[in-house]
Amino acid sequence: MIDPAVSAGLRDAIARARRPALIAGLAGMIACAAGYFLAPAAFFPSYLFACMFCLGLALGCQAVLMLNHVTGGAWGIPIRRSLEAGTRTLPVVAALFLPLLPGLRSLYEWARPEDVAHDAILRHKQLYLNTGFFLARTVICFAAWMAFAFFLNRWSREQDERPTRGLSRRLQLLSSAGLVVYGLTITFFSIDWVMSLEPHWYSTMYGVLFIAGQALSGFAFVIALTVVLARYPPLSGFINRKHFHDLGKLMLAFVMFWAYVSFSQYLIIWAGNLPEEIPWYLRRLQGGWGWFGMALILFHFVLPFLLLLPATANRNPRILSSVALLVVFMRFVDVFWLVRPAATPGHFTLRWMDVAAPVGILGIWLFVFLGQLLRRPILPVNDPEFAAALEHGADGAH
Amino acid sequence: MTQFEHDPGEGGQLYGLMAEFESPTELVTAARTAREQGYSRMDAYSPYPMHELAEALGLRRTRLPLLVLAGGILGCATGLFLQWYSASIDYPLNVGGRPLGSWPMFIPITFELTVLFASLFAVFGMLGLNGLPQPYHPVFNAPRFALASRDRFFLCIEARDPNFDRDRTTRFLANLGARVVSEVED
Questions:
Q1: Contacts of range B173-177, beta carbons closer than 8 Å, 24 or more positions apart
Q2: Quick check: B51 and A395 CB within 8 A?
Q3: Which residue among A55, A96, A201, B103 has its CA within the 20 to 30 Å range from the CA of A74?
Q4: Nearest CA in chain A to B102
Q5: Residues 88-147 of B with CB under 8 A from A
């Protein structure tokens, strides 16, 4: 019988990791505060991209968690608690977005009435793109995500306390609704916060791009984390190469899905070559930004694809965690490439806020995440699929 | 007690000796011992797949993944070449001022042909490597072999094995605890 509680060794290891995260987070935040007052025009775009990446980690965890509740499958058992810890960071992520509110005028052309007055298209879009409605949509999105996170975690805890048959079914139904709501809300949210940085441009692929990216961010982050957790009880007595193989295969699928939607958008806009669409890519391919595009093709798709293709790599936790960390980093680069060129279109410059904002936000986020991870048992032993997941590894000789 | 069954149709070529076991563990032990004794041309038959058996028999990993990879690369190259050749050499056509070799437009077809070739190589490679469909196989001449799909476990050492000797191998299989050892006609 496996004791699912956080073991003493794991508790120490997590506590050791939390300290530097908090220190880096606070240092980054102090630098951000300085930037907020001294160079707001540089602060807001950098802070926005760091926030969007951080949101991707939390929402990606939630999306993958709900996907596992809907489809079932033993692959979700070893990572369930890490995903749930990710969903419980959403209130902190929402709080991290707050410093952006005074910057809406600075970030968005449509929030500046003097600019809108001279622009027929923006006047036309004002019915949707105005500060009041924008804030209302943001509040609705966060409220919806947090409501689903609340019930996902609450029912999961009830299941830990006493196994009830109906709970899994309830989690499944909740997650079905949650996935639909997530698909809609993230579409609105990404269009609002990121696409409308360049309000003349539009792409119907945009929401899907974020869904693929966020699910991949959360999933790859949790895989890298699981390889570390697997060194300590209780996960060390549970997880084996077969579980890692499952996670690796699924990550390969997500990588391919991201590449598929990213390329689809590029191909359609490239083929159309229309003056209202193509500038978005030109701003992201000229003046140094092109290197980011090239890096995305090579290290966000080609390299992970080739590394995850052979089964032997998926079964080797060292290789798997290296690929997962590479993917998390490339997710970061992708979000940077989507958001930041809007501030310096067509010429890449690295500002010190581009470093301070992610260090601050991710430090704080990691601190909160690891704290949440400690609060629940590491394995959901009362899940009806737990026995199957345990057995899944039993004949894992090959 | 082991029971021996001789091939009724004497004069026919001997394919091998078929040993029948009652439990999967006996079969795995028998296969492992046979391998240790230097037998290499043999096969085992059981009602359900067993991982340990492949290992005990010393089966090589299948080369099918390599074939599939080759098919994928060939399909990728074919797709790219087909489009590049027809669009820029054989029938150059100016479409909206784009370059003749517009690689972004080639990607979807290249992807499709990669998948198509890889899956065709997988299907026909699988059939080529395992020799199916095979209307005749000598092991079905063994009496009671139909039980291999129910509750019995069989090990067949083939006559073409260099260590094979009709009497010695029969005794060897009997000593392993085989319930029945029978000669299989080719």
A1: B173/B17, B173/B19, B173/B30, B174/B2, B174/B4, B174/B19, B176/B19, B176/B26, B176/B29, B176/B30, B176/B33, B176/B34, B177/B21, B177/B26, B177/B30
A2: yes
A3: A55
A4: A271
A5: 96, 98, 104-105, 107-108
Three-state DSSP state, B130: helix
Give me the residue spans of the domains in chain B. 3-61+138-185, 64-129
The pTM assigned to this predicted structure is 0.86
E strands, chain B, in order: 3-5, 14-21, 42-45, 153-158, 180-185
Q: What is the pLDDT of residues B109-167, one digit of tens each?
A: 999 999 999 999 999 999 999 888 888 888 888 888 888 888 899 999 999 888 888 88
- Give CA–CA dist B171/B151, Å, rounded: 24
Which residues in chain A are contacts of B98 at CB distance < 8 A? 273
For chain A, the domains span 8-389
Residue corresponding to tokens 């299907």: B123
- CB-CB contact of A346 with A47 (8 Å): no
Q: What is the tens place of the pLDDT at every residue in B88-107?
A: 999 998 888 888 988 899 99
Give B 42-71 residues with CB within 8 A of chain A: 51-52, 55, 65
User: Does the beta-carbon distance from B52 to A267 stay under 8 Å?
Assistant: no
Contact between residue A297 and residue A330 where contact means Cβ atoms under 8 Å apart? no
Task: Pick the residue of B60, B94, B107, B112 with the most A CBs within 10 A to test the interface with A by mutation.
Answer: B107
Length of chain A: 398
User: Mind telling me how many Å the CA of B83 is from chain A's nearest CA?
Assistant: 16
Identify the closest residue of chain A to B65 by CA–CA distance: A310
Rounded distance between C-alpha atoms, residue A352 and residue A344, angstroms: 14
The owner of tokens 């490439």 is A337
Tokens for A154?
Answer: 């609450």
CA-based nearest residue in chain B for residue A395: B51
